[in-house]
Amino acid sequence: MNRQMLAGLVAGLLFGAGLGLAGMTNPAVVIGFLDLAGAWNPALAFVMAAAVMVTFIGYRIVLRRAQPLFAARFQLPGPGVIDVPLAAGAALFGMGWGLTGYCPGPAVASLGMPSMGLVGYLGAMLAGMLAVRIWRARPSTSQPGEVRA
Amino acid sequence: MNIFVLPILGGLLIGSAAVILLALNGRIAGISGIIGGLLPPAQAPDKAWRLAFLLGLIAGPLVAGLLAGQSLIAPPVASMASLLGGGLLVGVGTALGGGCTSGHGVCGMARLSPRSIAATGIFMIAGFLTVFLVQHVL
């Protein structure tokens, strides 16, 4: 295992532990957070607030350095533009999130307790990602390249 | 214990993970992007750390559950049809929109990226509306 893999493993462990402790690996909790008109459970707003706060401060400290410790350069998305694929993609994603209570991270992090439904969700998610990637890679057009968050 | 203690602790861990991944590997901790780089076509050349991250992501709630003395993972609540349809929407949506709750919602928001702020606002509203329709209208 090289240094980059070890860093990935540690970051993944912390990320997964955080999702689990926060309650995000329980889809009923997530749907409860999204259910403003029902018995709204605001706890998950605190997850995002705490995570964004730590990341906001930590990123600023880290980005004072010229490069990361185990790689040649920081790979950050450019500013980009707010376009139709971004808006449509976010809307579709939010619909799927609300239907199931799963976004990608918590769904993967729930694989420690696999079920048919979870595996079905993840299989469909991978198929959807694959379809967009193949469509984007199609020849003879000048689509902009893949943009990540 | 206050019901907000664990969510805040969880959020602190998620943020720490994002900072560590940028400090060491120079990468954004966006789960859909990490997974996407493993998929064809144009697979990313750096598959090893992506797989290691996902392995850690699966192990994380199990380890935390052992420490907490209780299982932290609960089974799906939606029907199989909703899980399949919802999974497809999430896959297409995150690939098209370039990120999910982690990449846009945490890392992009922390960078004050206009794209990420817009995406987060849109997927939150879509999530609220979808749950309202499913739970209270349909």
* SSE run of chain A: HHHHHH
Low-confidence stretches of chain B: none
Oligomer: heterodimer
Reading the helices and strands of chain B in chain order gives: HHHHHH
The CA-CA distance between the termini of chain B, in Å, is 36 Å
The major sheet of chain A is characterized as: none
Largest interface, per-chain counts? A-B, 121 and 116 residues
Explained architecture:
Helices cover 62% and strands 0% of the residues of chain A. Chain A has helices at 3-22, 27-34, 43-62, 84-100, 104-109, 116-136. The radius of gyration of chain A is 18 Å and the shape is globular. The mean pLDDT of chain A is 93. By secondary structure, chain B is an all-alpha fold. Chain B is 73% helix and 0% strand. Chain B contains six helices and no strands. In chain B, helix 5 crosses helix 6 (114-137). The N and C termini of chain B lie far apart (36 Å). Classes of the chains: A mainly alpha (149), B mainly alpha (138). Chains A and B meet through helix 1, helix 2, helix 3, helix 4 and helix 5 of A and helix 1, helix 2, helix 3, helix 4 and helix 5 of B.
Characteristic terms for this protein:
heterodimer, A: 149 residues, mainly alpha, 6 helices, 0% strand, B: 138 residues, 73% helix
SSE order and pairing:
The complex is a heterodimer of chains A (149) and B (138).
Chain A: H1 3-22, H2 27-34, H3 43-62, H4 84-100, H5 104-109, H6 116-136
Chain B: H1 5-25, H2 31-36, H3 47-68, H4 80-97, H5 101-110, H6 114-137
Helix pairs in contact in B: 5-6
Q: What does this entry show, briefly?
A:
The complex is a heterodimer of chains A (about 150) and B (about 140). Chain A has about 150 residues and is mainly α.
